[in-house]
Amino acid sequence: MTEPESLATIEGVDEHIRRHSYDRLIMLSDGIFAIATTLAALNVRIPAHAGSLGALLLASARSFIAYALSFAVAGIFWISNRDLFARLRKVDTPLTLLTLTLLSFIALIPATIGTLYLQGGGDPQLRLYGLAMFACGIINTGMWVYAACHPELMLYGVRRRERWARAGYAASFPILFLPVLLLPSSQFAIVMLPLAFLVFLARRVLLPKWIGVPIR
Asked: Are 36 and 105 in contact (CB under 8 A)?
């Protein structure tokens, strides 16, 4: 299959390099996210022999939980990545390096969650997972803040208020994973679930009011 760049009309070298760098970074990002979710599915362990459907589902429960959690976390960061690149018109070297760093941690999601759920991990494995997700959140926030500080990278219609409101929303992601990093496994869900609700509320209610347009 030909690359998208091959479909372009005649253009100058500078414009071709700009578009090529932007397109290839998007292609790499989507590929890494796709691989991360696929590896999460490959980690699902279904017993070859089970007395009933209920017994099979029960025996596979930890694998399915790990898969669902891996897919959900990857999906959260993919949506944020998609929203950012939908507003960019070009990328530069620092933003490219930040994106590559984020992708390097995204690729670790199946491994960290798999260790936690499939191998009966305890607090050390939970901390490793929390650290990886916290790092993803920090880097993702850094990408939004960097883009907000460099409006020349963004489409001309993206207003200053929207840039910074979305950067602030991205900053909620590392906060969301702090309980996993700091609290015992028996307590983090009690704190994380209300935080997740607040993050959802911020995206669906507060952010649209602040920027003055519906969230797409």
From this structure: no
